[in-house]
Write a structure and sequence with these properties.
Elements (H helix, E strand, L loop, with lengths): L6 H4 L4 H7 L6 H6 L7 H4 L5 H12 L6 H8 L28 H24 L18 H4 L16 E3 L12 E3 H12 L3 E4 L6 H12 L8 H24 L14 H14 L4 E5 L5 H7 L5 H5 L7 E2 L13 E7 L4 E7 L9 H15 L8 E8 H6 L1 H7 L12 E7 L8 H4 L16 E5 L3 H18 L3 E6 L17 H8 L4 H11 L5 H22 L4 E2 L28 H11 L12 H16 L1 E2 L1 H14 L3 E6 L14 E2 L7 E2 L12 E5 L5 H13 L3 E6 L10 H8 L2 H5 L6 E5 L14 H6 L15 H8 L3 E3 L4 H13 L6 E5 L11 E2 L12 E2 L14 E5 L3 H11 L6 E6 L1 E3 L3 H10 L4 E9 L5 H12 L11 E5 L10 H15 L5
Parallel strand pairs: 4-7, 4-8, 5-12, 8-9, 9-11, 10-11, 14-17, 14-18, 18-19, 19-21, 20-21, 24-25, 24-27, 27-28
Antiparallel strand pairs: 1-2, 3-10, 6-7, 13-22, 15-16, 20-26, 23-25
Helix pairs in contact: 7-9, 11-21, 11-22, 12-19, 15-26, 23-24, 23-25, 25-31, 26-27, 33-34
Main location: mitochondrion
GO molecular function: metal ion binding; oxoglutarate dehydrogenase (succinyl-transferring) activity; thiamine pyrophosphate binding
EC number: 1.2.4.2
Length: 1001
Amino acid sequence: MYRIKTLAVCAQPWTARVLASAGTPECTAVILSKRNAVTKHSFLNGTSSVYEEEMYEAWKRDPNSVHKSWDAYFSNDFIYQPPPSISSSLSVPTSTATAAPTSRAETELDIIQHQNIQRLIRAYQVRGHLNSQLDPLEIGSGHVSEEQLGLALQLFDIGEKDLDKEYILPPVTAVGGQEAKLQGAEILNRMKSIYCGTIGIEYMHINNVEQCDWLREKFETPGIKESTTEEKKLLLARLIRAEGLEEFFAKKWPSEKRFGLEGCEVLIPGLKTIIDVSSDLGVDTFIVGMPHRGRLNVLANVCRKPLAKIICQFHSNIKPAEEGSGDVKYHLGTFVERENRMTNKQVKIAVCANPSHLEAVGPVVQGKTRAEQYYRGDKQGKKVMSILMHGDAAFAGQGVVYETFHLSDLPAYTTHGTIHVVVNNQIGFTTDPRMSRSSPYSTDVARVVNAPIFHVNADYPEDVNYACKIAAEWRATFQKDVVIDLVGYRRYGHNEIDQPMFTQPLMYKKINQQTTVKVKYAQHLLNTGVVTEEELKAEEQKYQKILEEGNVLAKQETAMHNRDWLDSPWKNFFEHKDPMQRPETGINLKTLQHIAKVVNSPPPDKEFKVHPGILRILKSGRDMEKEKMADWALGEKLALGSLLMEGYHVRLSGQDSERGTFSHRHSVIHDQDRDKKFYVPLNHLNDSQAHFTVCNSSLSEYAVLGFEVGYAQTNPNSLVIWEAQFGDFANTAQCIIDQFISSGQDKWMRQLGIVLFLPHGMEGMGPEHSSARLERFLQMCNDDSDLFPKIDADFVMQQLHEINMIVVNCTTPANLFHVIRRQIYLPFRKPLIMMSPKSLLRHPMARSKFDEMIEGTKFRRLIPEEGGAQEDPTSVEKLLFCTGKVYYELVKERQANNLDEKVAIARIEQISPFPFDLVQEECNKYSSAKICWVQEEHKNQGAWSYIQPRLDTVLRKTTRRDKGAVRYIGRPSAASPACGNKRMHEDERNVFLRTAFELND
């Protein structure tokens, strides 16, 4: 076997075939034997090989020690250029074969020409999409030359004569199919057809060779995109339905907003193809999220929701059957279970309800999908998958899209691949793309997770169909995200009564001349003999008849039922339950002791090295267990552990939630010597328990809270908790709180049991680490401050049933324990907003006895004065109402002033719904005392604005002679949640504490 002296020649395995064709077959074995060491992606995909690294090290020591080709490569920033000459180092023995002799110069030239062709192929793979014909309106085509795009032949030293020659195809392309050689002109034509046609493929940013090769084969193999006659007929039928529905709505209700799909009707057959292919590959459940545009068409033609249920939404005389605000028709969701006619398999499709915050539903869909996968044991997403649709402007402009993408591969959040479809209208309301994004494509954000992106001209249905087919296969093969950028247009304005000519006159002149995609495709099939005029008319009339029949049935509807629009109905959850039945939340002492013992024991593995600090915490917990006492962390673990032992799945997520931001939880114990070795005590309570999931989230609030909302929507018999690192950070997730948590039931009949832990408390830590903005949550609560309710046996449950969300600020571990357990045992579901403490986590007074958590005990909505003041209520001069940790500061100040018998302090633990009955009892009890509200927050913040009118309402219903206004004690109004100076913080606190105990004020 001969040795090759020129490593530049050996660096690319396919070069052996070039040398062999030039009369040097004896070189082939040497080079191919190095194929694994010098991989084909060394030069082509930007990853280094063993040989490249060796050559680079030698070059760094002495540039003259390597061949000129390597010197040129490294000197030019790792960009290959043919060296001036390689003849000095090329030593190729003369072949003894009968082939015609070839000179060294001819061999050298042949190699360089092959390399130039390879560089050309690579250029089209990387940049060809930039020259693809994507715009049906042809507004932006032809603005960039091939030279600017790096695709001009002269850039590769390829002349017209070179295109007449045959070239051996490199292994990094499938453009030849079964052919080993192709003429240069044919290679160029095929590359242009593949990469610069009506599909633009972006995939060369993916750093995985197997995935790149897979995509190349799917798009480069000759003839692979051809559709059968039956596929073409099916595609036409689906287009007829997509366009027919929009025409029907436009004709019947021309002045109604519906956010139609005109200009991108091909979305409907595309989605159906995704579902068909995925169903064939084993998926039976699809969770779908989308904005308003095209929603009614998707519901009708993809989900096959009964047309009468959709059409009746247009009839203004039909009233809702249930209470609540309801929502506009293009925000509503649905759930259907039907047979897929292409695969004859049952499929479930849920389209999630979504507000006008267009991308807010994205993380919700992902959370819902993850939950479905969890409950079905679908660990690879083979059965359940998500599909997300986007507008181009929102996809580029909404930061939650980026946040959601970054959940895609996180162990506790992945859904094993999502298919994203961008309905690209090339405009955002009235904003041109050049004003709405800085990137060439609206989809560039998807590159951060190495997702392939298929840009498709929406006027070419067969190309759209193929891209959707490959997207479904990609997701099934690699369990990774993929994006389809469907480039079309918007035939009308932002809504049907908007005038787009005001702002985009040139675009809409083009659009007004544009033939619809259905008409174009139908004419194409007529011209090619695939369908006849009679078949076309029959298909159109068939669907028109279906629409008219749906309209007749819609007129028979007497009321709109919100249950028809639920995206995930909870089967059997509400059956046989009395909504007024107050749940029992206490448990037996032995269970409490067992949980406390397990969670405070080190891992049973003797080789597991626990941090000394954790060992001390565990010992402290065991000491509390012996004393039958719990601090905040243990109270939480007792609540969660008991639910787990009763079979309820618990999921807790947030930034640093495993340990707890304030290092109090330590729900995951890490081995100090072994990576990825950890122990979760709450998953070792007994053999029959449910699973406890605790996870540190990405540094996101918006997407992560949305994810947990979706997770909580799926199964009511689970406890889902999101914890903010600091309560203040929830403001970044305010959209999810406003749109899904506080108003979701009213708008969409969507009950939700999610729990929010929001660390809250004025600790002198500055503006951003003090307030969870309690006032905002209370302002969103829907109870009436001026209405004193009827106090009877059902009062407590009636309040909880009618409130839109529950807001608590607990001061004891026992109350924390009960309110968490109550969340599961309520016969309905309401969001729970908990002002979680910081200093109380370790406060010596914030302790609870196990006796406060055993059977017969319950959550205390208000904890009254339990000290000396309650022994002689008539002598009490001040009654202080408060909530949260300020209670302990008030107790300390009262003791310092020896006023235990003169000042009573009552803690309101459940702020909303307001405990009118218990507050009334306290006011009547201390009939001579002045009533004050004390808070540590500023006057325009905290609970005061919520508390004041309700206390006034209570006072009007008391037996007290003095029914005057309640006095406020606390910090004055301020713009900032807290001061940033520790001394100033203490001075402010001392002032209001002193004021609270002035009896002669």
